[in-house]
Specification:
By secondary structure, the chain is of the alpha/beta class. Helix 2 links the parallel strand 4 and strand 5. About 25% of the residues are buried.
Length: about 120
């Protein structure tokens, strides 16, 4: 069963601007999610999407693998009132039987969490 993982990271937070690239224990927040998803090796394709060039550049400069696509998100999907489900629907791909969404603002998940979720051992 082919699995797609979508990781959206908006740049325009009003409460904490650029929160997705703020350092947490010396590492950008988005890297925790990317590392866990990549290390799990359970996804056939990973889409990282942001409306922010700095965030996209940070990912592009630190990650290079054929199953990771770093894509600029359309502005209409990155407003204060945008719903994350609209971003998922924009990037969903019928070639995949499962589509997973994971948010970079939950940095405590690990590759083992993704493996357990996929194998339904939670």
């Amino acid at each position: 069963m082919k699995k797609l993982c979508i990781i959206p990271a908006r740049g325009g937070s009003k409460r904490l601007p650029k929160k997705n690239i703020k350092l947490l224990n010396g590492k950008p927040l988005i890297f925790y999610t990317l590392d866990a998803v990549i290390k799990s090796k359970v996804f056939d394709k990973i889409i990282f999407t942001s409306d922010d060039k700095e965030i996209l550049d940070k990912v592009n400069n630190n990650y290079s693998m054929k199953n990771l696509e770093v894509i600029k998100r359309p502005k209409q999907l990155a407003t204060d009132t945008s719903k994350v489900i609209d971003t998922v629907l924009h990037f969903i791909d019928d070639d995949y039987e499962q589509t997973w969404l994971t948010l970079p603002t939950s940095p405590l998940k690990t590759e083992k969490d993704f493996i357990a979720a996929i194998t339904q051992q939670i």
